[in-house]
Each structure stands twice: as structure tokens, then as C-alpha cells.
Amino acid sequence: MSNESGTPPIQAQQQDPPGHTYLMQPVPDHGEASYRGSGKLEGKVALITGGDSGIGRAVAIAFAREGADLLISYLDEHDDAQDTATVAREAGRRVVTMAGDITDEAHCQRLVQRTVDELGRIDILVNNAAFQRSYDSIEEIASGEWDVTLRTNIYAPFYLAKAAVPHLQSGGSIINTTSIQSKDPSGNLLAYATTKGAISNFTVGLAEMLGSKGIRVNAVAPGPIWTPLIPSTLPPDKVRDFGKNTALGRVGQPAELAGAFVLLASGEGSYMTGAIIPVTGGRAML
Q1: pLDDT in tens, 228-239
Q2: Which residues are catalytic?
Q3: Which one is the CATH code of 38-279: 3.40.50.300, 3.30.70.890, 1.25.40.10, 3.40.50.720?
Q4: Can you give the pTM of this predicted structure?
């Protein structure tokens, strides 16, 4: 039996980090067969981090079908990245893929520069890539891993925004992926939840800083979404029950977030800045 998102229920499963889409059962829905564009981003150029899989892939597909050219940033999941690029190119868009570690500021600067050099401009920055691990006690968290989590989830958005702002024109948009964890943190995700709280604050503060330039800064706060991060960072029993604690009683699919990113990237969201949009299946963010 399928749930309301049209996909079968999740079974207990586990992968090695960072996880791969093709190994997931069921394979997530990124909107490949369902998303229909209407020109909302025609002529725009977007840089999307973590664009190889999960939420980033859904955003890339939606943006391409709305008319945007893309630079897809990813760590080293080459097969996933090329699959995403293929779907985006089938929409008739120019797509550049670039592997590398966004915890390195110089790499972030190269991402922005390559976007401008190869695609002619940058209009939208989507800070989506994230690092997550699950632990039952603080003693298990290595100091080096704490540092990697902060550098991936909050340093990198700072590095990328700093590099992108000189190229963004009035009407440009920065969209950060925060999380329900920013308001309702889970103890076993201590480092991840800490960074998501920081991202929410970063979003609101940067929105105030850039408002006079006409650059909007917003965030999407997902709840439990079926991405490779889940089977590669949670134990099998938690994977099986993932998302069942929502009002809708099920996990969300990446495709179900795409519309929120399109809204924030397009002229339809022209009076939205400093906003955080929850897409949580009904879990409250008050």
C-alpha cells in the first residue's frame, strides 16, 4: 500500500554515509514525473549546494523546469549529481556540476566564480548541503566531527553568501535550508540541530543586512523528509518509523518542498525576506 505521497511505506534499512539515492527503498520522489514549470525563473541562474540528491535534487529539477540554468554543487556523489544534471538538461537548461568540499572557503569562492564565468551571472543561491550524524551521548561526538558539522552547515552558507553578494543584483535571492530541528531539537542530533538554529538566525540577520540592496534572504524548514541523509545517519528502526510522528503520519518526499523554494526564488515572493517557511507535515514550529 502507498501513502498519500504516492510512495510505498519505508522499510528498515541502512547505508554508509553520505548515502546514495539508488540504494534507497523506496527511491525518493524528486518531482521527476510530476513537477510542471510555468516560467517563474526564466532567464535566471541558480547555484544549489547539495544538488545531487534529496531536497537539492528536487529544487534543481523544479528550478530547471521553471527556466533557470544551474550550477549543482556536491561533495563526491558523482552518479547522483549526473542523474540530477541529466533531468535538468532534459528541461532545456544549461547545467554545470562541480564536486568539492564546501567547508573550504576557497572552494566556495570558486563555486560562485564558476557560476558567473560559465552561466553569465548568479541570481539565486540555495544553501542546502548539510552534514548530520546521530549519537546517544555527548561523549560520543568527536570534536573534529562537531567542527565538520558546523563548517558544513553554517560556515559554508556564510562563505557562499559572502562570495555571491557582490554578484547579486536587486531582486536576487538567497535561500537557506534550515530544519524543524531549529525549533524542536532532538538530543541525538545535537550538532545538527545546533547548526540549524544558527542557520535560522543567520537567515533573519542577513535579510536585514541585505534588504537595502534589494536582495531577499529566506529559509525553508523541512520536517522529516526521505533523503539519503536518513538511512545513512539513523539506525534502521528509526528509519522505519521516520515521519510517523507528524500530523500527516508519514514521511515527506523531496518533491513536496520544491514549491516553497520556487516561491522564495521567484517574483511571487518579492515581498518575502527574513521568512522561514515550515514544510513539516504538521509538526509545529512556534
Answers
A1: 878 887 888 888
A2: 192
A3: 3.40.50.720
A4: 0.94
